[in-house]
């Protein structure tokens, strides 16, 4: 006779598990510096694209309108 169990096969309830996962390996200074460099590069790219794109998004305020000679009938 087999007893019914509500725990799925292969799953161990946390109460019954006495095995702790291994500690995470610390990132080296090179990996930390690489992460910072990547982040700074992305932020600098975004800021640069906004700065370069601002003149294209702004409306001309005091630029004189120049008409060609053809539009004046010459």
Architecture overview:
Keywords: Membrane, Transmembrane, Transmembrane helix. The protein contains one helix and no strands. Helices cover 39% and strands 0% of the residues. The radius of gyration is 33 Å and the shape is elongated. It starts with 28 loop residues before the first helix and ends in a 17-residue tail after the last helix. It is mainly α and 74 residues long.
Protein traits:
elongated, 74 residues, mainly alpha
SSE order and pairing:
Elements: H1 29-57
Q: How would you sum up this structure in a few lines?
A:
By secondary structure, the chain is mainly alpha-helical. The protein is 39% helix and 0% strand. It contains 1 helix and no strands.
Give the topology string: H per helix, E per strand. H
Q: Report on the biggest sheet.
A: none
Rounded Rg:
33 Å
Strand content: under 5%
Residue ranges: pLDDT <50 for 5 or more in a row?
Answer: none
Which outline best applies?
A: elongated
Keywords: Membrane, Transmembrane, Transmembrane helix
Transmembrane segments: 34-57
